């Protein structure tokens, strides 16, 4: 695909580069199993390509907000998109939500295909890859000597919080504290907030208590909640923690629970029932149907793949030639038994990039904060499925042609 190119960091300096990435770019999980997840390559994209991705992501975000608002008004569709009865109950009590009083962070995953760029999903609940979208690029630029990082996502997020509450003093970074790969995401943003004089606290969701819709961590009043704990995981918490308060807090939320309403990959199944204009979504997302339709139509079984409704890192995606026969049978069985937990989506043909005689499949995650583009996050894989074994790659924007 034109406008993109992989370039290699010189072997003689790669180890120094990797050390900088680990210690300066919060890359605390540089290896998954036996796989090194710090790529020796850098993705270069032209300004024209960057502008196109920016435009598409911003248009998608406007439409995604429309989806969230339409879902709030039509919660009878909650079962069709895979939300539990308990979650529906809490959303039905959501009467004070104001998007302008919260910070919305999303990531759209773009893939180069034979039909141009296509998106596989939006991560609108708890998108990761924040440090990779900014610091990783700056380190790559230092070693390559050229290219630009277009956005500073930590600065954009901080400015968004301050614009809502200029008196912001304390932010709780809510995450699964036993996972270092979650903590590294929170630590990056928290350190930036600390550098601006904001108290940053790192805790799991049970640590916050609420009084009159105001969150507290011990005796410390919390003005903002930055959540990196998937909302559906809250349902596994004991009742005594009263996590429903996250729906009604007067603190700035990033992301507010409302963002889960667009996380479901089953949303396209009910698009036509929402009565909203989703032109960009419909042009970029492959054809999507309920698994029940998939299993009844033999032609769809040849052209579509199964994906978990709330999958987040590419796990559980049924792509022939990528997963084992046993895994495929397990996915098929699960989708037949629990169709509301799955979706069938037309398989696109990924166009890999060639470098050093090898082919790499690419995913570009485009972040938006509020309604504006906020950064690019890259991953590459020798397989057409971009999953937890994919390798993080910095993205630099260059002038002229490639």
TrEMBL record:
Domain of life per record: Bacteria
InterPro entries: GSPS_pre-ATP-grasp-like_dom
Annotated ranges, domain Glutathionylspermidine synthase pre-ATP-grasp-like: 38-387
Pfam families: GSP_synth (PF03738)
UniProt keyword annotation of Magnesium present: yes
Keywords, comma-separated and alphabetical: ATP-binding, Ligase, Magnesium, Metal-binding, Nucleotide-binding
GO molecular function, a single term: ATP binding
UniProt name for this protein: Glutathionylspermidine synthase
């Amino acid at each position: 695909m034109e406008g993109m190119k992989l370039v290699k960091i010189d072997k003689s300096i790669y180890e120094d580069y990797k050390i900088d990435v680990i210690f300066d770019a919060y890359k605390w999980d540089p290896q998954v199993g036996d796989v090194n997840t710090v790529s020796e390559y850098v993705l270069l994209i032209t300004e024209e390509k960057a502008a196109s991705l920016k435009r598409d992501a911003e248009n998608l975000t406007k439409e995604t907000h429309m989806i969230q608002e339409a879902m709030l008004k039509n919660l009878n569709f909650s079962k069709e998109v895979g939300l539990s009865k308990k979650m529906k109950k809490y959303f039905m009590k959501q009467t004070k939500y104001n998007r302008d009083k919260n910070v919305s962070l999303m990531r759209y995953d773009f893939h180069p295909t034979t039909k141009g760029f296509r998106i596989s999903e939006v991560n609108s609940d708890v998108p990761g890859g924040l440090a990779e979208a900014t610091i990783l690029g700056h380190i790559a630029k230092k070693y390559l000597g050229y290219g630009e990082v277009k956005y500073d996502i930590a600065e954009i997020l901080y400015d968004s919080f301050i614009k809502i509450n200029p008196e912001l003093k304390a932010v709780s970074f809510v995450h699964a504290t036993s996972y270092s790969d979650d903590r590294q995401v929170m630590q990056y943003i928290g350190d930036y907030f600390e550098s601006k004089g904001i108290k940053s606290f790192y805790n799991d969701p049970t640590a916050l208590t609420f009084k009159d819709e105001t969150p507290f961590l011990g005796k410390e009043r919390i003005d903002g909640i930055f959540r990196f704990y998937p909302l559906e995981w809250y349902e596994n918490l004991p009742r005594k923690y009263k996590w429903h308060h996250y729906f009604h807090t007067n603190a700035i939320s990033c992301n507010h629970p409302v963002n889960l309403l667009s996380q479901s990959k089953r949303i396209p199944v009910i698009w036509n029932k929402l009565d909203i204009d989703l032109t960009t979504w419909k042009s970029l997302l492959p054809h999507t149907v309920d698994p029940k339709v998939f299993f009844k139509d033999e032609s769809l079984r040849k052209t579509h793949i199964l994906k978990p409704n709330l999958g987040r890192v590419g796990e559980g995606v049924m792509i022939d030639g990528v997963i084992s026969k046993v895994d495929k049978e397990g996915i098929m069985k699960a989708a037949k038994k629990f169709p509301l937990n799955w979706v069938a989506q037309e398989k696109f043909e990924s166009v890999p990039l060639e470098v050093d005689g090898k082919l790499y499949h690419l995913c570009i995650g485009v972040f938006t904060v509020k309604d504006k583009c906020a950064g690019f996050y890259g991953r590459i894989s020798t397989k057409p499925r971009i999953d937890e074994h994919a390798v993080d790659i910095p993205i630099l924007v260059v002038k002229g042609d490639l």
